[in-house]
Automatic annotation (TrEMBL):
GO MF annotations, alphabetized: hydrolase activity, hydrolyzing O-glycosyl compounds; metal ion binding; oxidoreductase activity, acting on the CH-OH group of donors, NAD or NADP as acceptor
Single GO biological process annotation from the record: carbohydrate metabolic process
Signal sequence annotation: none
Active site feature: 171, 266
Cross-referenced PANTHER family: 6-PHOSPHO-BETA-GLUCOSIDASE-RELATED, MALTOSE-6'-PHOSPHATE GLUCOSIDASE
Organism: Niallia taxi
Protein name, as recorded: 6-phospho-alpha-glucosidase
Keyword NADP included in the entry's annotation: no
Alphabetical list of InterPro entries matching this protein: Glyco_hydro_4 (IPR001088), Glyco_hydro_4_C (IPR022616), Lactate_DH/Glyco_Ohase_4_C (IPR015955), NAD(P)-bd_dom_sf (IPR036291)
UniProt keyword annotations, A-Z: Cobalt, Glycosidase, Hydrolase, Iron, Manganese, Metal-binding, NAD, Nickel
Marked site positions, Increases basicity of active site Tyr: 109
Amino acid sequence: MKKYILAVAGGGSTYTPGIIRSLMDRLEDLPLSEIRFYDIDGARQSKVVVAAKAVIAEYTDSILVTDTTDPQTAFENADFVFAQMRVGKYALRELDEKIPLSHNVVGQETCGPGGLAYGLRTIAPMIELIDYVEQYAKETAWIVNYSNPASIVAEGVRKLRPKARVLNICDMPVATMRNIAAILGVEREELVVDYFGLNHFGWFTRLEVDGIDRLAEVREHVYKHGLLTEDVSKIDYRHADSSWIKTFKNIKLIMDHFPEYLPNPYLQYYLFPDHIVETSNKDYTRANEVMDGREKTLFETVEKFEETGILEDSFAVGVHGTFIVDVTVSIAQNLGKRYVVMTENNGTIPNLPADAMIEVPAFITADGPKPEFVGDIPYFYKAMIEQQLASEKILVEAIIEGSYEKALQAFTLNKTLPSAKVAKAVLDDLIAANKDFWPTLNKEYTEGL
Ligand code: NAD
Ligand code: G6P
Ligand code: MN
């Protein structure tokens, strides 16, 4: 069987060792000759690569590992690129969360103004990555992208590099399916779902096991317990953090109001922004929880490994690692397996714009995702989706044109922002915080007045 060269962009990510374990568990399906780690922060990446190498060594000594900050070294002749860049790292994530909260607005890394801010940082580096891959990698190479905010990244790529072979994915649908399966007492792989929406903005409409729709049963469970079982150890360790438990419990709040479908957990930010702000700690957000938890543990584990040769964390990353490997195997072997991913609408949901980057079940082939027909969606969902879509599309226009006015329109259209006045105040604070990362936003009509 052919052996592949895989590059990981954002090799210094906290997810890297876990993704490597998922890859090692699946070497029979995706044989690898080389793994190349690429990051702009070489020092951070080198520490993470220590852990990645230790995981690889548990399986094989025949994979060449390269740790580099040079794009040519990373991407030359590569078959696949996994992208997981966090532009601005946790320092800026913390500001994306805390600046909106200081205005009593949702502070979240991918939803609301924080997500828009992260989008303004990420489009240019993502396009740079695509151009490196185009220049150096194989013509058939695919970028499988986790880098957030995935919805805005998907729209930016669609607009600026429409022919690029980029598959944008998110682990939230599959993580939600993991919880559903635990509730139903079945394996996640037995569950077949229908789902529609945008990334971090969608609904499950059917939860089928052995040809029978179990949504009614799950709805009943959610009414009592949210989207959790008694035994939270059945969900991956990351989602066992208190903030994630709160999120899965909040699904009850959403379904108490809108019981028709099962929502993506991220809809809590758009439907209940007031509740989210009231229950947030403005001084200690998810970024702090991650820095004090996952990030700290990773670097301590590496330090101890270097001292003792013992790897104390197994880095079992769960659905996050499994999912990116699953879709990549489906591309590599042209399996056409059905997964929920981002793809261009083109009539899949006829009553949404053809050029929307939607999130739906699609068959994953060597030529990319082939979405399954969904059909028209009811007005409530269509209206919500179109408002969010407009916010994201206008944000991408703001980035391309360097337009302050469009950025303000994008912020104002975001459902988490209560008024144009608040949108402007949050945007202006975020501009100051992101001056090293954002494109310059010019005021077309009033600059210099
Ligand atoms: P992290 O900060 O630990 O790692 C990100 C790495 O990206 C850092 O080492 C950083 O130096 C690097 N980086 C930043 N800009 C870069 C650039 N221009 N080129 C190359 N590398 C660059 O972050 P993390 O929490 O491990 O998350 C990694 C990414 O995965 C984030 O974008 C996060 O939002 C995303 N993520 C997405 C999903 C999903 O569902 N789509 C799930 C989990 C994580
Ligand atoms: C989920 C989402 C991702 C997001 C991640 C954040 O998995 O699908 O898009 O990046 O959560 O998790 P964290 O543990 O970093 O808060
Ligand atoms: Mn996601």
